């Protein structure tokens, strides 16, 4: 049983000018087996939260705490966080020319598992995960994310999720840019991960449609850098009908 | 590309009418026809003269202190020509054997003064087993010398030749490559010199009718290394692939210049050079001159240079020049970019648990991978990969 605890998190983004405060006191707790949806308008700070949890150097935590099973996440380097069991599926995965997917996946799995997975078992594991996500086998030899379509990138993020088996996964708009078939495949991938690993999921999204495939235990509305309301799945239905107006009026970003 | 694209230091692409006239004027074998350069000339302006130990001017060429050895192969004769008076005529005939015509003082002096030439002669139709390796080991950086090597590939031959340069020396060198009609050959020049070496290398490649030549420069060691490679075509159907891979550390000046003279119809050229720089005042220069003459209809050419700045304080210049005198071509293009190590790539890899040193190595290996894949000669690939790993270890990557 793992728990990610975010307490009163304040984060500024480093810009060419002065640092700009984006997160203004985020409180959230995500435990194994749970799915928390974070929904909010564009620019409300959802990606900032995701990057801050992963330790992106552009985002500076000015106050607050993040812990994973009591361990101070903010004191860890980016790679240590991943090895501690945190995973971020990025909204915009990065292209790395010349580094094959195969090489990358095996290097990452070796780092996270602490030892190189036995080769035959590994090959089988990757093959099955790729098939499940309807990724063509030739992608294994392609450079990481290079020339992938938006949807292909998202499938590969979920492929990594399945292979790296984190305790807590943060998915940043994994649904955006996916057509309906891809959305189903990717959602099934997330559900498979969660079922197999009892993973905790922090699902960041702008739209409610992914919640038809991934059932949230809790929905949090994010606005102007903090959670402004939390509820059950019915909160998503309200957003579906009324949009974010109730939460954004009067808010200053 | 692994790096953030950024404008190159030396300026934008120059697609101009200066490649033929200014950069590559017609040459002469007469030393007196070439004034001592001042360093302001277009072809010399990137090279720090004060580190050349007078090679560009009239530094005396001393008796050679380079030890030379080579592997032997059926169908290949390798020997030094010029040691005896009977060989004087042969020696003279080797100078400019590829059609190389000096257009600066240093190369004119080399051809005028070298007491002997190393001749690698590959028989017609020979299909040479293994890689012919010629190793040149400098023993004294205080000895300033001239070198002349002729690699003559007979018609329809197939062979891979590697020139390995190591140790300490101060050398001005002409390497002439004659790829006979229908031959398919590779020439790799490896500059793995000690830190105190200065090397001015001038390669000229004559591509025979329907011949296929791969010319590769791998430059890692030396205080100052400047390799110029010119290519021309003895007939239609020739194909020249020019590859380069260099890795500059603190204080090194590594310069590569190519000049592809498309002077015959229906020929191809393709250049790919990639360099990494690390450490204070590591410096690289890449100049890619391509000239498509009026006679060269049906030409297809592409050149690309990429540089990766791994640490602050290094500088890469990259200048492609393309001059086209005929509209009847298949294609001509170029690309050049210099960028810093991409922190977003590092973040992405680390966010998957990969430690930063491993991640950096992955990215740099990936950057060079495209060149390594095209080298073709297994022992050369191995050598290059090992050297990259060694270089990576220097910055603690
Ligand atoms: N690297 C950055 N540089 C400057 N501003 C940024 C940067 N990252 C985010 N911001 C700003 O922070 C705010 C929140 O952005 P983001 O976290 O991406 O929101 P969301 O993911 O909810 O759309 C926006 O106003 C955005 O412009
Ligand atoms: Mg976002």
Helix content of chain A: 25-40%
If classified by CATH, what would the architecture of chain A be? 3-Layer(aba) Sandwich
Main sheet: strand order of chain A: 6-9-10-3-11-12
Radius of gyration of chain B: 20 Å
Determine the structural class of chain A based on helices, strands and strand pairing: alpha/beta
Bound molecules: adenosine-5'-diphosphate, magnesium ion
CATH superfamily of chain A, please? Answer: P-loop containing nucleotide triphosphate hydrolases
Number of helices of chain B: 6
- Protein chain pair with the most extensive contact, residues per chain: A-B, 29 and 26 residues
Approximately how much beta-strand content do the residues of chain B carry?
35-45%
Order of helices and strands of chain B: HEEHHEEEEEEEEEEEEEEHHH
Shape of chain A: globular
Number of strands of chain A: 12
| Gap from first CA to last CA of chain B | 19 Å
CATH fold annotation of chain A? Rossmann fold
Multimeric organization: heterodimer
